[in-house]
Write a structure and sequence with these properties.
About 45% of the residues lie in helices and about 10% in strands. It is of the alpha/beta class and about 190 residues long. It has a single domain, classed as Rossmann fold, CATH 3.40.50.620. The protein has a 5-stranded parallel sheet, sandwiched between helices. The chain is globular and about 45 Å long. Bound molecules: iron/sulfur cluster. Iron/sulfur cluster binds next to helix 4. The site of iron/sulfur cluster has 12 residues, from helix 4.
């Protein structure tokens, strides 16, 4: 199983309960600035090292992400709040690339830390990912843990392991807006 990781704290509780050892795929085209991307990737690598998991890094294609986000919205992206149509476009972009990567590398299934984000539309994320999986002949996996519980466990494990916890969702439009709980979670 390929697990899309956009931040380490959300990955921790999922790795802990996963029925099989996942391969991590860090994909953070949405992240801004590049220094924040580097911080989150370093944290994900630390998690992989701790659990003895393989980790791959997707391309940091923030410009392509931005072009896509703008193409999907009738108004400037900065005029949308968190968990809006802008975020749905962001989910699509990231999930599509994850499914493509999983299929190209011969994985039979994929999952995403996005699926336990307590400040995002998890139903939308899962529905879209399921459709992608079907299209690619893959299985999309979810986890038997609620967003609130995953958030709490992610906080605990991050603290215990000294893992970096970000303060905002990830893109430039969320920078400086502290969503509740984002101090430890992700984002999405
Ligand atoms: S706030 Fe988070 S989910 Fe929404 S567009 Fe920005 S990075 Fe993506």
């Amino acid at each position: 199983m390929l697990l899309n990781v956009c931040c380490a704290p959300c990955a921790l509780p999922l790795i802990e309960i996963a029925a099989e050892k996942p391969t991590l795929y860090f994909y953070g085209a949405n992240l801004y600035p590049a220094e924040e991307y580097a911080r989150r990737f370093a944290a994900a690598k630390e998690v992989a090292r701790h659990y003895g998991l393989a980790i791959y890094e997707g391309p940091y294609e923030h410009d392509a992400w931005l072009v896509y986000i703008r193409s999907q919205l009738p108004k400037p992206p900065e005029s949308y709040g968190e968990n809006s149509e802008r975020c749905q476009a962001c989910f699509r972009f990231r999930l599509e690339r994850t499914a493509d990567y999983a299929a190209a590398k011969g994985f039979s299934s994929f999952a995403a830390t996005l699926s336990v984000s307590s400040h995002k539309d998890v139903a939308y994320i899962n529905e879209y990912a399921q459709a992608l999986a079907k299209r690619q002949g893959l299985e999309y996996k979810t986890f038997p843990i609620g967003a609130a519980e995953a958030h709490q466990r992610g906080r605990e494990l991050s603290k215990e392991l000294g893992i970096y916890r970000q303060k905002y969702c990830g893109c430039e439009f969320s920078l400086g807006t502290s969503s509740k709980g984002q101090g430890s979670r992700k984002v999405l």
